[in-house]
Write a sequence for this structure.
């Protein structure tokens, strides 16, 4: 059996003041999958992603990336992951090419390879006309492109996208969808969180729904969308929002 | 797609070099603040203590007053440069959250700390050399021992680079970030013998110098520059190395716990 791209087992994350962000979460993403990770705000999606990528320390549980322990073998494991975070965690006074180039450098890319990769990504995301601007001078959509280019600079095998199309216009959203589909078809594994269910329905093959720090439903897109109604109905039922809605009426 | 090369990584030299390149690029965005300000301040000291007050002061150990003061002025600027470089770099990267760029990368804690300290040493060395050139140009100083001079610049910048990292990790506001400069760095360097000798103090106040770590740094570089020292160089060097080890151990421990960095 092939090694999963990501295997999270009994993950628990408790913040300092006792706030339990992730209760007991287990998840497997197979290599080559386009995986949708859904849930309401505060459900534990971003915290799970932070634990996987090293931004947060897990309280307990294990995380394996292509079979490598993400804590014990963190250096090797992180080489395989690219993260596009929900928020813009970028030096606002830096220029797009520098931001992407520094990220590639952190991943150990040599100068010639890095230069060619940065040029390719600047072209790919139509950032070339904006190279002289600082990050803070870019529009929201352009900022999102820079952060996505940064996540992809080292050509990771597992790409984690935390709400990558939030606040992005329709045109860029379609460009991103096409690009993500293309790199997924090339064999990259993608884990996507999004509040746009049509985006998840369009892109993802497998879906997990998280609520209150646990996976409450997991299956293929067809299984989810096959429930009465649609993916939206499955989502509302799984997260308990449907019952709340009915009770409210 | 097959799982790629999973051999254990050695030292991430390229990553370490990138940390230095990024910090130097960021530093050069504000050259007036980083270099021109300390050089201007040194020029003012040379003018005031060399030409305005200098003639009215007696010599100390056969040296003009400006020659006695210059090592202290140089050391104060190195301390400030080193502290501000690391504290502001780490605080700003936490505040704007771009420290996460490094946290998600295959960088060890040691590589992050060494990368940060390398930039600190670069900034402090350029600052110090600039002041030295000004001092030599205006005949306000000399160099007795180049190896000792380099040792004191590098060692003191590492100490205050480490102290800056600690403050940058601890601070939760810009006010907290500036507190050590106001309450520790400025008073301790002023009272550390920059402008006076131990003999100028009454006997009962000598403890004030012996208990002040800045005294050993200023004393050390003064010995390297004009050959006048009030404490043995060996003692000053031993205490300095001890401080590097203690602060380095503390920074290492905090980094490995993710204090102020990881959620």
């Amino acid at each position: 059996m092939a090694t999963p791209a990501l295997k999270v087992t009994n993950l628990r994350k408790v913040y300092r003041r006792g706030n339990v962000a992730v209760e007991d979460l287990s998840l497997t993403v197979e290599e080559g999958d386009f995986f949708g990770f859904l849930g309401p705000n505060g459900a534990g999606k971003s915290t799970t992603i932070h634990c996987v990528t090293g931004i947060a320390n897990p309280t307990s549980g294990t995380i394996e990336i292509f079979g490598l322990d993400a804590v014990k073998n963190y250096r090797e494991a992180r080489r395989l992951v690219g993260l596009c975070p929900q928020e813009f965690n970028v030096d606002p006074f830096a220029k797009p090419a520098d931001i992407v180039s520094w990220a590639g450098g952190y991943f150990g890319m040599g100068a010639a390879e890095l230069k060619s990769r940065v040029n390719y990504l600047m072209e790919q995301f139509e950032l070339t006309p904006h190279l002289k601007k600082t990050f803070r001078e870019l529009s929201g959509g352009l900022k999102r492109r820079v952060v996505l280019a940064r996540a992809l600079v080292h050509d990771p095998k597992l790409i984690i996208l935390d709400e990558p199309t939030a606040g992005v216009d329709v045109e860029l959203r379609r460009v991103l969808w096409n690009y993500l589909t293309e790199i997924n078809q090339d064999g990259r594994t993608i884990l996507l969180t999004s509040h746009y269910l049509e985006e998840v329905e369009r892109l993802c093959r497998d879906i997990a729904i998280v609520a209150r720090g646990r996976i409450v439903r997991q299956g293929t897109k067809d299984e989810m969308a096959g429930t009465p109604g649609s993916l939206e109905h499955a989502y509302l039922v799984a997260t308990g929002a449907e019952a709340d809605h009915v009770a409210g009426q | 797609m097959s799982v790629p090369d999973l051999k254990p990584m050695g030292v991430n030299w390229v990553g370490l070099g990138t940390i230095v390149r990024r910090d130097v690029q960021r530093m050069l965005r504000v050259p007036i603040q980083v270099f021109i300000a300390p050089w201007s301040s040194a020029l003012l000291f040379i003018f005031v203590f060399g030409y305005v007050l200098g003639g009215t002061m007696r010599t100390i150990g056969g040296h003009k007053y400006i020659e006695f003061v210059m090592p202290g002025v140089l050391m104060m600027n190195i301390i400030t440069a080193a502290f501000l470089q690391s504290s502001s770099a780490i605080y700003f990267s936490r505040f704007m959250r771009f420290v996460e760029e490094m946290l998600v990368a295959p960088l060890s804690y040691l590589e992050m700390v060494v990368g940060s300290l390398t930039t600190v040493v670069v900034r402090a060395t350029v600052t110090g050399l600039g002041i030295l050139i000004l001092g030599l140009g205006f005949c306000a100083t000399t160099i007795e021992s180049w190896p000792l001079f380099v040792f004191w610049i590098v060692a003191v910048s590492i100490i205050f680079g480490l102290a800056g990292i600690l403050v940058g990790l601890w601070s939760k506001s810009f006010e907290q970030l500036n507190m050590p400069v106001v309450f520790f760095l400025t008073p301790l360097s002023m009272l550390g013998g920059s402008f006076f000798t131990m003999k100028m103090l009454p006997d009962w106040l000598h403890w004030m110098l012996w208990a002040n770590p800045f005294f050993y740094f200023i004393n050390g570089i003064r010995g390297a520059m004009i050959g006048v020292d009030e404490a043995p160089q060996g003692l000053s060097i031993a205490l300095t190395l001890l401080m590097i080890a203690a602060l380095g151990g503390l920074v290492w421990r905090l980094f490995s716990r993710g204090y102020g960095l990881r959620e």
Notes: The mean pLDDT of chain A is 91. Chain A has ten helices and ten strands.
